[in-house]
Amino acid sequence: MSKHKTVSFDNEPLILVDTDDNVTGYESKVNAHLGDGILHRAFSIFLFTDDDRVLLQQRSGKKPLWPLYWSNSCCSHPRKGETYEQAVHRRLREELALDADLVYLYKFRYQAGFGEVGAEHELCSVFVGKIPAPVRIDVNPSEIEVCQWMPAADVDRMIVEHPDQITPWFVMEWRRLRGEFRDTIAQLRSRGMISAA
Q1: What are the residues facing 185 on neighbouring strands?
Q2: 109, HSE (Cβ side, Cα atoms, 13 Å)
Q3: Of 73, 159, 160, 195, which sits most exposed with the smallest number of CB within 10 A?
Q4: First-last CA distance in the chain
Q5: Which candidate in 94, 95, 120, 122 is catalytic?
Q6: pTM of the full predicted structure?
């Protein structure tokens, strides 16, 4: 029996917002992603190491949107009654069995469709953290196929050479991190990782 629990549910209540991040209501995760999607809060996390590697994950093949696509270290949604701060640490523990100090960088709105299946329409907050060196990750297989620590320069090439294998939000976020926030990330202090296993 797997020690990992299912951590995503179609009926989990997501937080609907306007473009200024004011709460406008709540909707189930499945309904929030139907059609063109309903704007809701989300977050993306990037974990870096001191030697400029970043943790990427390949999304589980069981996911309805972008299955088996490569994406950032961890991403999900705050639930009704949850702050961003609570949500990002919960999700690190659920998906990667770890926790880490995180720094908020920015938020942005995007909308991306995945064929006839549905869409993401999110006001997404981006967080980064740094740990001393790559560590082995105990992934939750209901969320992630595999994780890989990749040199940042290799991610740059991957986005150019294989854009059809990467989630659209990851591409948008990575380009901004490598442009506007490169110095900020380089200056982050390496902090210890907390095992949540």
Answers
A1: none
A2: 11
A3: 160
A4: 16
A5: 122
A6: 0.91
Taking CA atoms, 82 is separated from 37, 97, 188, 192, in Å, by: 21, 20, 26, 25
Catalytic, 122? Answer: yes
Phi/psi at 37 (5° precision): 80, 155
For 174, the token pair is 């990575």
| CA 117/CA 68 separation, integer angstroms | 15
Catalytic residue among 75, 95, 120, 147: 75
Give me the architecture of the 13-185 domain, per CATH.
Answer: Alpha-Beta Complex (3.90)
Distance of alpha carbon 149 from alpha carbon 57, whole angstroms? 9
Segment 82-96, tens digit of pLDDT: 999 999 999 999 999
- 75 is an active site residue: yes
* CA–CA distance, 29 with 31 (Å, rounded to integer): 6
What are the distances in angstroms from CA 57 to CA 23, 28, 145?
30, 25, 7
Chain segment 43-94, per-residue pLDDT in tens: 999 999 999 999 999 999 999 999 999 999 999 999 999 999 999 999 999 9
Q: Residue 189, SS3?
A: coil
Supply φ then ψ for residue 39, to 5 degrees. Answer: -60, 125
Residues whose CB falls within 8 Å of the CB of residue 194, separated by 6 or more in sequence, listed in order: 98, 99, 100
